[in-house]
Write a structure and sequence with these properties.
Blueprint (H helix, E strand, L loop, with lengths): L17 H12 L4 E5 L5 E4 L1 H7 L19 H12 L1 E10 L5 E11 L9 E8 L1 H12 L4 H4 L5 E6 L12 H5 L8 H5 L9 H17 L3 E8 L5 E12 L5 E9 L1 H22 L3 H16 L3 E7 L5 E10 L4 H10 L3 E3 L3 H9 L3 E3 L11 H7 L4 E8 L2 E9 L8 H47 L2 E7 L6 E4 L2 H6 L3 H5 L5 H5 L2 H16 L4 E8 L5 E11 L12 E8 L1 H23 L3 E5 L5 E4 L1 H7 L4 H7 L3 H5 L3 H14 L1 E10 L5 E12 L5 E10 L1 H15 L9 H17 L6 E7 L2 H8 L1 H17 L6 E6 L2 E6 L5 H16 L2 E3 L2 E3 L3 E7 L18 H18 L4 E3 L2 H22 L3 E10 L5 E12 L3 E4 H10 L3 H18 L8 E5 L2 H4 L4 H12 L6 E5 L8 H13 L3 E7 L3 H5 L6 E6 L1 H4 L6 H16 L3 E5 L4 H10 L3 E3 ...
Parallel strand pairs: 31-32, 34-36, 36-37, 37-38, 38-39, 39-40, 40-41
Antiparallel strand pairs: 1-2, 1-5, 3-4, 4-5, 6-9, 7-8, 8-9, 10-11, 10-15, 11-12, 13-14, 14-15, 16-17, 16-20, 18-19, 19-20, 21-22, 21-25, 23-24, 24-25, 26-28, 26-31, 27-28, 29-30, 33-34, 33-41, 34-35
Length: 1153
């Protein structure tokens, strides 16, 4: 630190810095003598006016004056050593040499000053408090206490203190100036009785009293400083010096003086406080800590009880209490006052803080508790606070905070204290400003460093390298970013430490001249350059790079000035080049696809003009070329579309969705022929979203549409009659059913038709005539229906009709009658005239009213249920005699359901062993001897009991169970005979062969294999066959008859007389017996005609050398008649019921055969 010398107290060298100027200004504001000097040689550098006046320097220059000239020569080395060792020296009393010849005494305090330059000669600051008067008084007291007359004229207060009274007396006249007690108010005698301790500050009173008592007790001298309170509540500092003296009666008393050292104390405190706080403020971590330090020091040194800080809020509209505060004593009312103040906000000019904020000057309230302008007066009264003052802290001419202090006593305005606190507040503001400036500079430096770091990081992170090269031959590189390693494979050092042409060698030889020429041309024209070229990296990889650069011309921008450097950026574009090559190849490929595609490709304007088209589109629309299409087809909506509205639909979809996929429409080709197309397109827009054009594909789907139509025809129409088939009828029926469930008044009727005796036509006239008949019936059915009705062929000779929207069932009945009448008319098919009829089942969608409701169905859930019930009604119609119609009744469904259940039970009968075989004896009528047995099949039904074969044989045939049942029947008979080891060979076993079995070509083989497997002789059997046996193909019948003859198996015609086929077969071999029909036998008792018929049959059998067997004989009369007619054998309940195997065996044993 270098301080300029001054010749005037307020003069400052013009070359001083702002900091030095501020120091000089602060130095001259101090109310006590202050000097600054070098510690090494004692050279005086700066002194304030008080120091000059004390030592008689006047305005003379300090040049050539040393500190040792002002003191005793032997003392200077002591002072130097103390400051160097301890950095300070406090309250050292010494003799001073005044330049005006006066002898002075003073108390000297020295403080070493810190400097930025540690090598410079250190400086110190010195503060002097003159004690010449005190020295003289002390010397006078040591000789004799002065007389009262002399004491009245000395600037001190003399006192005596008798030990026994405990009160001071003999007070000098200085009491008025020092304490405010006026002599006019007190006689000397009264004045002598004043209690001096009452003026002592309450905080110092006990200490002072103890000091005086100790001096009396120990007979010692004393010298101490403490505070007093004047009658105006002003605090002053006094120095109390005294000693013990003895009166004539040897009583000890204290004699002493009060010397007013207020100015010295304040100067000392201000100097120490200023020095400490300046250093503390500089070292404070932040502004809040610095303000807290100021609060604490002011309260401690000045004796104020409470300090707080008010700061502007975020909007700078009010002041709010900061968290920084200090209290000198641990008094609970101070904490309570602080907490209550948190609720206050002070606007500009309101309250003590607001007035300081407004005036930007200090404010003092001697008694805040009674001050109207003090908003918190009630709080001050409550918590015992009196005097208060506030000081602003300014930074950049703005109030950044207000310091507020309080004490518990009234206090008049203290300019010296205000000046001290204002000085500290100013230092705080300057410190804040310096810190803000330093922080701003630091932040700017950090921002600059961060910006440089980010720039470097960005440069290094970019996929390429920045460079700077000198504009010299070979362009030597002076800077490269770290990206060069990734780009070239070489490190930065390898470039910078190699010959100038090193980078040029990396450039592909074919590109080198072109690159250099481009760069030179750009430099000569003072324009940037951009070049693309190839390089070879350190590892031999070839890369494409893109380089952009410009010349650096320095400060001289003259056009003749050449560039001194080149700066630029190089990046890898290998992938881009590969993409461009791929794109070019793709464009070529796309053009090839565009030209050779089978689909039509187009671009059109939204208003319907072609912008581009490929050859395929021209071919689809019948034009010679794309150019021919675009010239002649200029209005797509009106020239191309068959239905012009379809174009509008297409455009609407494009506007709403921006894309259309699979849009099908019919269009005109150039020759006005019509084709089907499917079109897919999307809208191409600009950056603002406006449509530029449409582009897409067109495919000719005419063949596909024709195929779809054919498939639809095949899927939903009968190929023979061209009527709707079962699938289409089921769809329409489902629609009608759904409509009936949502519309209360909607009803419909379903008719199910089956042609009567159609199989006869097919079998007799052939399938071709049968197909012709079906077509003719289909046409005739169509004439019987109304317009909304639907007729369908669902298979074979079955037709269904949907009578739509029927309001009355009589309408459906009328249609059924028309159909029956129409089909009764003969059909002429070629040379054939064919008569036909049909049976009809009817189902109504909803129940009717009155009598019809009993014959109507409930609501249906699906079409299958409707067709099921119509089919059930159809079978009921056939049962009535064919050629009629029948309305479905729910009881029909119950019967069908019962039949279904019986079918299920019959399936389980085989698995559950519910089938049994019983044997009914057959007797010879003439001799009454046992002839044999008929094996009869029974079903032991769980619920219905024992069922004969006739009860379930038809059901077995319909469910295809007759063959497995017959095989079980045959196997069981053979197993029974196998178990019957003593079965007589003379006995015959009759059993009935099922019609479905004998129509199988291998049924005789099955019989032979079963007999062979069980060891039964098949010649003991007589096989009874029905009329259907003779209806099979003639060659099959002849083959079976021959096989039976060869194996010596005999047949018996079952229920002879029932059909014509059995009469035609009588001459066939090997028929050996006829079983007479049971209903012919049961009428013998009452019907003479039946007797004649039986007689004829018996005669016929005898003539053909065949035996006759009667069935169902239940009375003796029937037995006698049969015997008279010549019938050889008979069976029935008259003789014996069917027997189990064991009973039959016992019967044979009993007969003795």
């Amino acid at each position: 630190m270098s301080l300029p010398l001054t010749t005037q107290g307020a003069a400052i060298d013009s070359d001083c810095s702002l900091e030095q100027a501020y120091f000089h200004q602060l130095l001259h504001l101090l109310p006590t003598p202050v000097v600054v000097a070098r510690l090494g040689d004692g050279q005086l550098l700066c002194a304030n006016d008080h120091f000059r006046q004390l030592l008689g320097l006047g305005t003379q220059s300090l040049i050539a004056l040393q500190f040792e000239h002002l003191i005793e020569p032997t003392v200077w080395p002591i002072l130097q050593q103390a400051v160097r060792q301890h950095h300070c020296l406090l309250n050292y009393e010494l003799k001073l040499h005044s330049f005006n010849g006066q002898a002075l005494w003073g108390i000297l305090s020295l403080q070493l000053l810190l400097q930025a330059d540690s090598t410079a000669d250190p400086l110190f600051i010195g503060v002097v408090q003159e004690t010449t008067c005190a020295r003289r008084l002390e010397q006078a007291l040591q000789h004799h206490f002065p007389s009262q007359a002399i004491a009245q004229h000395l600037p001190v207060l003399f006192y005596q203190f008798p030990a026994e009274s405990g009160r001071h007396y003999w007070v000098s006249g200085e009491v008025e100036a020092l304490t405010g007690e006026y002599r006019a108010n007190h006689e000397p005698q009264a004045l002598m009785a004043l209690e001096l301790l009452a003026w002592v500050h309450p905080d110092d009173r006990l200490k002072t009293q103890r000091l005086h008592q100790q001096a009396l007790a120990e007979h010692s001298n004393y010298c101490v400083d403490y505070r007093i309170m004047t009658t105006h509540n002003e605090i002053k500092w006094v120095q109390d010096q005294g000693h013990v003296v003895y009166q004539d009666d040897n009583r000890p008393i204290l004699q002493g003086i009060w010397l007013d050292v207020t100015a010295y104390k304040w100067a000392e405190q201000e100097s120490r406080l200023l020095h400490q706080l300046m250093q503390a403020i500089s070292n404070a971590p932040n502004f809040d800590a610095a303000m807290g330090l100021v609060l604490e020091q002011v309260c401690q040194i000045a004796g104020w009880d409470f300090g707080e800080v008010w700061v502007p809020d975020g909007d700078c509209t009010t002041l709010e209490l900061a968290p920084i505060w200090h209290r000198r004593h641990e008094l609970p009312q101070l904490e309570a006052f602080r907490q209550a103040s948190l609720a206050f906000r002070f606007e500009w000019g309101v309250g003590l803080p607001g007035r300081v904020w407004q005036t930007r000057q200090s404010q003092w309230f001697p008694d805040a508790s009674t001050e109207p302008l003090f908003v918190r007066a009630a709080l001050a009264q409550t918590y015992g606070l009196k005097a208060g003052f506030g000081v602003p802290i300014l930074a950049d001419d703005d109030v950044v905070a207000v310091l507020v202090f309080f004490m518990r006593w009234e206090q008049l305005r203290d300019p010296q204290l205000l000046r001290l606190v204002a000085t500290l507040a100013s230092e705080l503001g300057q410190s804040l400003q310096r810190k803000q400036q330093a922080q701003a500079a630091h932040e700017m430096e950090q921002a600059l460093q961060e910006s440089q770091r980010q720039l470097k990081s960005l440069i290094d992170a970019l996929p390429g390298m920045f460079f700077r090269a000198e504009n010299q031959p070979g362009w030597p590189l002076s800077y490269l970013s770290e990206g060069c390693a990734d780009l070239t494979g070489y490190a930065v050092e390898e470039f910078l430490n190699t010959p100038h042409q090193f980078y040029d060698h990396l450039i592909h030889p074919s590109d080198r001249d072109r690159v250099q020429t481009a760069i030179r041309a750009a430099l000569s024209q003072r324009t940037p350059y951009v070049v693309e070229y190839r390089i070879r990296t350190k590892t031999g990889i070839r890369k494409w790079v893109w380089e952009k650069g410009h010349g650096v011309y320095g400060d001289n921008q003259n056009e003749e000035t050449q560039a001194t450097q080149i700066e630029g950026f190089i990046t890898d574009i290998t992938e881009r080049k590969a993409t461009e090559e791929a794109l070019a190849a793709a464009e070529d490929k796309y053009r090839s696809i565009f030209e050779n595609a089978l689909e039509g490709i187009f671009q059109t304007t939204p208003d319907g003009r072609y912008l581009d088209a490929n050859p395929a589109l021209a071919r689809i629309y019948g034009y010679d070329s794309p150019a021919d299409l675009m010239v002649n087809l200029t209005d797509i909506q009106h020239q191309l579309y068959v239905d012009e509205a379809q174009r509008q639909v297409f455009q609407t979809l494009m506007q709403e969705q921006g894309v259309v996929v699979g849009f099908e429409a019919q269009v005109y080709r150039r020759d006005r022929s019509i084709i089907w197309i499917t079109e897919s397109a999307h809208a191409v827009t600009d950056e603002t979203g406006d449509v530029l054009y449409y582009e897409g594909l067109v495919m000719d789907i005419t063949n596909q549409k024709q195929a779809e139509a054919e498939l639809h025809q095949r899927a939903f129409y009968d190929p023979l009659t061209h009527l709707p088939n079962r699938a289409l009828f089921a769809r329409r029926l489902a629609q009608a059913l759904q409509r009936s469930q949502t519309e209360v008044d909607y009803e419909f009727v379903v008719l199910f038709l089956d042609l009567d005796r159609f199989k006869v036509v097919n079998d007799s006239l052939g399938h071709l005539v049968g197909d012709q008949l079906l077509v003719a019936i289909a046409r005739r059915l169509e004439t019987c229906l109304r317009t909304p009705d639907l007729v369908a062929r669902i298979g074979g000779d079955e037709f269904t009709i949907l009578l739509d929207n029927i309001s009355d069932l009589t309408i459906a009945q009328q249609v059924a009658q028309r159909i029956e009448t129409a089909l009764q008319e003969p059909f002429t098919l070629g040379e054939h005239e064919i008569f036909s009829s049909t049976s009809i089942g009817m189902v109504w969608s909803k129940p009717g009213e009155g009598e019809q409701s009993a014959n109507s169905c409930t609501l249906y859930a699906n079409p299958e249920d409707l067709l099921r019930d119509a089919d059930t009604a159809l079978y009921a119609a056939k049962a009535r005699g064919k050629g009629c119609y029948q309305l479905f009744d729910p009881t029909m469904h119950q019967g069908a359901l019962q039949q279904f259940n019986q079918e299920t039970e019959l399936h389980r009968a085989l698995e559950a062993n519910e089938l049994t075989v019983q044997y009914q004896p057959i007797y010879q009528l003439q001799t009454s001897q046992l002839y044999g047995f008929e094996a009869q099949l029974y079903w032991q039904h769980v619920q219905q009991g024992c069922l004969a074969t006739a009860d379930f044989l038809t059901l077995a045939d319909e469910t295809h169970l007759s063959i497995p049942i017959y095989r079980w029947f045959l196997t069981q008979i053979c197993q029974d005979l196998q178990a019957w080891s003593s079965f007589p060979e003379s006995l015959k076993i009759h059993f009935r062969c099922f019609s479905s079995q004998v129509l199988q070509t291998n049924w005789i083989d099955d019989l032979s294999q079963t007999c062979q497997h069980t060891g039964v002789n098949p010649q003991c059997f007589r096989l009874e066959v029905m009329d259907g046996f003779w209806r099979q193909e003639q060659h099959c019948l002849n083959q079976q008859l021959q096989t039976l003859t060869e194996q010596q198996l005999q047949l018996c015609i079952h229920d002879f007389g029932l059909g014509m086929a059995s009469f035609q077969a009588l001459h066939q071999q090997p028929i050996s017996a006829l079983r007479l029909k049971e209903n012919l036998v049961e009428l013998l008792d009452t019907n003479t005609n039946q007797r004649d018929i039986l007689r004829i049959m018996t005669v016929l059998a005898h003539h053909l050398k065949m035996e006759t067997l009667a069935t169902g004989v239940t009375t003796a009369l029937q037995s006698d008649y049969l015997q008279q007619l010549g019938c050889q054998y008979a069976q029935g309940n008259w003789f014996s019921p069917p027997l189990s195997l064991a009973v039959a065996q016992a019967l044979v044993l009993d007969s003795g055969i």
